[in-house]
TrEMBL record:
Cited PANTHER family: PROTEIN YDEP, RESPIRATORY NITRATE REDUCTASE
Lineage of producing organism: Bacteria, Bacillati, Cyanobacteriota, Cyanophyceae, Nostocales
CDD domains linked: MopB_ydeP (cd02767)
Organism the protein comes from: Nostoc punctiforme (strain ATCC 29133 / PCC 73102)
Keyword vocabulary terms for this entry: Iron, Iron-sulfur, Metal-binding, Oxidoreductase
Assigned GO CC terms: membrane
Full protein name: Oxidoreductase alpha (Molybdopterin) subunit
Length: 740
């Protein structure tokens, strides 16, 4: 049993003795509540029902209503409140799109605020804007174009914000019925390296533990992850973890203020005095994770702090790892990590003293060329002490989108079928037999490859559900040029986005979608801890002719393949869940979810429980990893991209309430700034061979030699050719900094 949080107040954990942190820099979460009420004042009963009954469409914690399965009490964060208006806003007048020249000058936040997309609309080459068309005409245009080309020249992309399992499953089935595996989703861009790394090492490609394991474990380690910003409901977990005696440690390039202390609004003690979270920060270079963790393991081995019994019985590859580490010099590990061996020893000693530990990571680990190796290095460290498959232990790639975990598991992926099965002739044949039509047996185009194909004029149709390639992928000018070459672009969404307004090569079609709360029969999502949760339909206003995406894709497939019409129809979302249960083994049980609160956690609370690993040999696998070599030219900095007050690429405020940094800020170490004769607020420019970014100096506790800029603004500095093995873009760069 894990220790329980202390019920009495613990002043040693307080962030400040000043009531309510007066004068401190942190989010005013109470203001967010009033702001949400004001914006949705025209639909308050509907807005309340969404919050009270729907499963959150924000990050992947997956609160149902305002409750979860980790802690009692109310769970409501500013991410969800900021998204609420997108679910309650009225439609815009289609006349607005008759001339898009002025709209093209607006930022995405302004486009979102215009209102919901109400009807199908079309724009042809040479036209100033869009005109309203019927669903029949829209689907006729799209199906005609698909039939006129070949499956290899089609591409389909689905984002993860609010997208549900039923949509993912039906969509990928429809696309494969049209003969293509060119379907991908946002999981590719964020956590595909995590899935690959976990699968290779443990045989299980998802989070191995539960959120409950955070509270009372000995050591809770965040690596390249800022949950206070991206998954703010978790700060409540961190507060109670501290009260249960858990030590919290952060390994990062920047001393994230929200990971250091936070005023948790729903806990009186924390709301008044705040809570100190991380007891130790280990600041390392961007991309220095493998070097730092290898050094940590090197210390653990040298001091015989490993769990030798676990290693001998339940793992393979440790001897090879040990040999490799012996050849890696301390000088090299220090240079690449950006820190000293004493710091690695201090962290190693914490790992040694812990009987239980949970490792949490995010985009700071995965979005690198070596993303898979970064993940494997964390797994290596965890395996030295058997920190997996038991209570209070685990490996958690924490998800940032409410729908992203289910995306690949439903098969909405260019490289796997439903259930995460590899795309092979054998698996294609098995799926063909189940569905009653031929399923393509070769891997499809992943998201970045779709844009490359478009740029090379090798794509005839791009169908994008949500998302915004223009603001998500590196080298935005290249992406825009690629989009302009696609004969037919189809954009399905609930609001306008900048990529919709890119000039058409021939035709652009806009299709209005429903939110998850508007889908008849209710839907499900899968959260970070593998919990499949039912979200009911919420009665209320409906927008124009908006339709659920799953219905649209199946009707489109029936038009393209009329002979398969009887195999491409579901009566309702319940029927989709019935088929998911048959095709995706780990989701058996989803067919029974039909009421608010219904849920189950596939795989149980812990994957690999009892150290039973679903690998071919039944053992966990250490990996031999070499730190990434990087030569930094004189006068250049390592540059990482970061999130501010935003949800994924949806920027919500110019200033980040947690850090105090504005969107154009470049975070720089004080010593580095002094050497360049820079002070707060100075105007500077970041340059490399790909682009330039005008910035404003913001002196911050960041590792020397490193800079951070906001994303997606920093995309102009990124190299589109740099991707992980699984295709996650490298959202980091090197650049020189010049004072203006």
């Amino acid at each position: 049993m894990l220790p329980k949080p202390k019920k009495y107040w613990t002043p040693q954990h307080w962030a400040s003795w000043k009531p309510f942190g007066i004068g401190e820099q942190y989010p005013n979460n109470y203001w967010e509540v009033f702001r949400a009420i004001w914006l949705s004042r025209d639909k308050l009963p509907y807005a309340w029902n969404i919050l009270d009954k729907g499963v959150c469409d924000g990050c992947a914690l997956g609160t149902t209503g305002m409750k979860d399965w980790t802690l009692d009490g109310i769970h409501l964060c500013n991410v969800r409140l900021r998204l609420l208006r997108m679910n309650t806003m009225p439609a815009f007048d289609p006349v607005l799109l008759e001339d898009v020249s002025q709209l093209q000058k607006q930022k995405s936040a302004q486009l979102r605020d215009l209102g919901r997309l109400p009807f199908p609309m079309m724009r042809q080459r040479g036209e100033k804007g869009f005109r309203r068309i019927s669903w029949d005409e829209a689907l006729g245009i799209i199906s005609d174009r698909i039939r006129a080309t070949t499956p290899d020249r089609l591409s389909f992309y689905i984002t993860s914000r609010g997208t549900v399992n039923e949509t993912y499953y039906a969509t990928q089935k429809a696309v494969r019925a049209m003969g293509s595996n060119n379907i991908d989703n946002a999981a590719r861009i964020c956590h595909s390296p995590s899935t690959a790394g976990l699968k290779a090492a443990l045989g299980a490609g998802a989070t191995t533990c539960s959120y409950k394991d955070w509270i009372g474990t000995d050591l809770l380690i965040f690596i390249g992850s800022n949950v206070a910003n991206n998954q703010p409901v978790t700060v409540k977990y961190l507060h109670y973890a501290k009260k249960a005696g858990t030590k919290i440690v952060v390994i990062n390039t920047y001393r994230e203020p929200g990971m250091e202390r936070y005023w948790v609004p729903s806990i009186v003690e924390s709301a008044v005095f705040g809570t100190k979270f991380a007891e130790d920060f280990f600041l390392i270079n961007m991309g220095g994770d493998i070097a730092f963790l290898n050094g940590t393991i090197k210390h653990i081995i040298a001091n015989n702090w490993v769990d030798q019994s676990f290693i001998d019985i339940h793992t393979v590859g440790f001897a090879e790892l040990k040999t490799s580490l012996e050849s890696q010099s301390w000088e090299e590990l220090e240079r690449l990590s950006g820190t000293c061996r004493e710091q690695m020893y201090a962290f190693a000693k914490m790992v040694k003293e812990a009987n239980k530990a949970v490792f949490v990571w995010s985009m700071g680990i995965t979005q690198h060329e070596c993303g898979e190796d970064n993940v494997r290095s964390i797994i290596n460290l965890a395996l030295t002490k058997g920190f997996v498959g038991r209570e209070g232990c685990g490996l958690m790639p924490i998800r940032g989108h409410s729908g992203v975990q289910g995306g690949a598991e439903m098969g909405c992926y260019a490289t796997v079928f439903p259930g995460g099965k590899p795309i092979t002739p054998e698996n294609a044949a098995q799926l063909s037999q189940h569905w009653g039509f031929d399923v393509p047996a070769s891997k499809g185009l992943i998201a970045p490859e779709m844009i490359n194909a478009a740029y090379q004029a090798e794509l005839d149709v791009l169908f994008s559900v949500g998302g915004n390639f223009l603001e998500v992928l590196p080298e935005p000018d290249y992406v825009e040029a690629a989009l302009k070459k696609i004969p037919l672009r189809v954009h399905t969404d609930i609001v306008l986005s900048s990529q919709m307004l890119v000039e058409p090569a021939d035709i652009v079609v806009l299709l209005p979608a429903t939110t998850r709360y508007e889908i008849p029969g209710g839907v499900t999502e899968t959260n970070t801890e593998r919990r499949v949760i039912f979200s009911p339909e919420i009665p209320g206003p409906r927008i124009g002719e908006a339709r659920p995406e799953w219905e649209v894709f199946l009707e489109l497939a029936r038009r393209v393949q009329p002979d398969l019409a009887d195999k491409l129809a579901f009566a309702d979302t319940s029927a989709i869940r019935q088929e998911i249960a048959q095709v995706v083994p780990q989701y058996a049980g989803i067919q029974h979810l039909q009421q608010p609160g219904d849920q189950f956690q596939y795989g149980g609370s812990h994957l690999c429980f009892g150290w039973n690993f679903p690998t071919s040999d039944g053992k966990a696998h250490f990996g031999v990893l070499l730190p990434r070599q990087r030569e930094l030219p004189e006068g250049y900095f390592l540059v990482a991209t970061r999130r501010g007050k935003q949800f994924n690429s949806m920027v919500q405020e110019r200033k980040d309430a947690i850090t105090g940094a504005v969107r154009e800020a470049v975070l720089i170490n004080a010593a580095d700034a002094a050497l360049l004769d820079l002070k707060d607020g100075d105007k500077v420019i970041l340059k490399n061979e790909l682009g330039e970014l005008f910035c404003e100096v913001y002196i911050a506790p960041i590792q020397s030699g490193n800079l951070q800029v906001h994303w997606p603004e920093g995309n102009v500095l990124l190299d589109k050719s740099k991707r992980s093995l699984e295709g996650a873009p490298d959202y980091n760069a090197i650049a020189r900094l010049e004072k203006i």
